[in-house]
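We store chain and fold; thus.
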Amino acid sequence: MSSDRIDLSTEDSLVRGCVRQDRRAQRALYERFSSRMFVVCLRYARDRDEAQDLLQEGFITVFSKITTFNSSGSLEGWMRRIFVNTALMRLRKGDVLRGAADMDEPVVRGVSSGEDLLSGIGGRDILRMIRQMPDGFRAVFNMNVIEGYTHPEIAEALGISEATSRSQLSRARMWLQERLRGNMKGK
């Protein structure tokens, strides 16, 4: 009996169990990371239903590729990359940036530091606004501002030019600032 039991308290034991396709280890991994990965999915999705779909797709990929995790970095970081890539694959399939135009100069009219705009606004409100962004803006904004991707990395991941990545980020920031200004006027 004791050989049948797995210690699921450490990430290493979870990974080893998942490599052996042990359902208890897979369930424990899901329970440990699903809420954090759902937040990642929400940032890229239009709504909670789409985020839930991305979460399921991401975990299918995690379980099918768990043998490639080499423990050199954090398990959460490795998984986060998978979930971001899952969301990006869906965006590429939808070709959300097909009509995005390159801009030679970033759009900077009316851009402020943003500190005044953020006072009195909670994190949930900001995340809600980000989810309301057009798909292309949201993807580039999340990748650059939240995930820390560079414009060359974004361009490669989304199949766009670096100039398009920069212009989409600039437009996303303007879009968000306009919504934040509107939120301030409503108070």
